Amino acid sequence: MGKHEETDGSEEEERVERRRDTSSHKKKRKREESSSDGEATSSSSDDSGSSSSESSSSDDERVKKHRKNSKKGKKEKKEKKEKKRKKEKKKKKKRKEEAKAKKAQKKKEKDFYSAGCVTNQYGKYGLLQESDMWQKRAEFSLWLMEVKDKNLEELSGWEERELFRDYMEDYNTATFPSKKYYNLELFEAKQRLKRTNLQETRELTDFNDEARRKREIKTIQEQRRIEETKEQLRSMREDRDKVHDMRHQQLLKSKIETLYRMGANAEAKKLAELLEPDK
Fold first, then answer.
1. CA–CA distance, 252 with 274 (Å, rounded to integer)
2. Whose CA, among 43, 69, 125, 243, lies 20 to 30 Å from 266?
3. Are 201 and 165 part of one and the same domain?
4. 149 and 267 assigned to the same domain
């Protein structure tokens, strides 16, 4: 009986030992599975974190690129606008300078034409040319006598041309001392009208016989002088062809002398025969 009890106790111990081993094995396997699941979860978490990080980094890059492009676009737009503004400003300045220069040029021309002119108006009575010499013969002759103290008939051809240039300059710049040198006929007509009006006024208001007499004498003298001048001018107009012929003869004589000096005697004789056909 004691032997049977020992056997039962030993079997019981073996069963307990087996249960322990089984329990230990299960716990070990459970720990391994738990460890494997943890590693898998950790790996999945790492992959997810890495993917999320990459996605976030890509978004940041896009945002940065968009900002950079936007900033660059704004800068280019601003530079373009500034360039356009400077260009418009430059054009405006150029137009202003051109207008100013044009205005200055007009003023310069105006000052040039009116320099030394009593009326400050160039060409007030018209503009003469050298070809107008015969048309203004009477006025030119009167100007020569009264202003230059010269007689037209005593002048040579080149002297007459030079003096007419002086007359023409004073005419064009309106600087004559009297209006009679512009248009003698118009001046005389106005003078006659003035004298008539003055005479009528004198008859009504002037009771001083001595003063009236002196004025009448002065008027008569002035009238006589004007008539003499007009007579001389009429005579000059009538003798214009004669004067022209005389000048032509003088030119021929001068040419004949030149030909003789050059030794062209035959040509000189022919011209001399034209000059003096009766000989």
1. 9
2. 243
3. yes
4. yes
Is the entire prediction scored with pTM above 0.70?
A: no
User: Is position 168 within any domain?
Assistant: yes
Find the distance separating the first CA and the last CA of the chain, reported in whole Å: 211
At residue 143, does pLDDT exceed 90?
yes
Number of domains in the chain: 3
Range of 5's domain? Answer: 1-30
Q: Which residue has the higher pLDDT, 248 or 175?
A: 175
User: What average pLDDT score do residues 73-84 get?
Assistant: 86
Q: Tell me how far apart the alpha carbons of residues 50 and 68 are, in angstroms, rounded to a whole number.
A: 26
Torsion (CA) 79, 82, 84, 87 in degrees, nearest 10? -120
**CA distances from residue 271 to 155, 157, 256, 262, 275 in whole angstroms, order as listed:** 25, 20, 7, 14, 6
DSSP, residue by residue, 237-260: HHTHHHHHHHHHHHHHHHHHHHHH
> CB-based contacts of 128: which residues, under 8 Å, 6+ apart?
136, 167, 168, 171, 172
How far is the C-alpha of 218 from the C-alpha of 212, rounded, in Å? 10
Helix (H, G, I), strand (E, B) or coil at 188: helix
User: 115, 147, 180: which is the final residue of a domain?
Assistant: 115
**58 belongs to a structural domain:** no
CA R_g for the chain:
63
Residue 110 sits in the same domain as residue 25 = no
Q: What is the pLDDT of residue 5?
A: 47
Q: Both 80 and 184 in a single domain?
A: no
Closest by CA to 250, choosing from 172, 159, 187, is 159
Mind listing the pLDDT tens digit for each residue in 91-127?
888 888 888 887 887 776 555 544 443 445 788 888 8
Quick check: is 35 in a domain? Answer: no
